[in-house]
Amino acid sequence: MIGLTRRQGEVLAAIKEYIARVGFPPTMTELAGLIGCSSPNAASDHVKMLQRKGYISIASGVARGIAVVDNGSDLDAISVVKALLDGGANAKERAVAWLELQGVKL
């Protein structure tokens, strides 16, 4: 999977938190409110990017069609640590994004 920006991590975390709280995914309008966007189109752009990066899937034509893809977070943690040890490009940003996905507040 491709790394996330800080904002994309925030959007993904908002989706996961909403699903954990109510049991189903948010609509674009609800997601826009959760992430502080003024329009559902802005939320939709974030969702499309998360889909392109492989973090979620979207059921076409369904209002609550967002599904979080299980990305094997334990394996992802190993790649994050290896990148930090090797001094890889964007290693710090990847580590921060991964921690935020795990619910760690920085």
TrEMBL record:
SUPFAM superfamilies: Winged helix' DNA-binding domain
Gene3D superfamilies membership: Winged helix-like DNA-binding domain superfamily/Winged helix DNA-binding domain
UniProt GO MF annotations: serine-type endopeptidase activity
Pfam families: LexA_DNA_bind
Domain (LexA repressor DNA-binding): residue spans on this chain: 1-65
Protein origin, superkingdom: Bacteria
Sections of the chain in a coiled coil: none
GO biological process terms on file: proteolysis
Protein name: LexA family transcriptional regulator
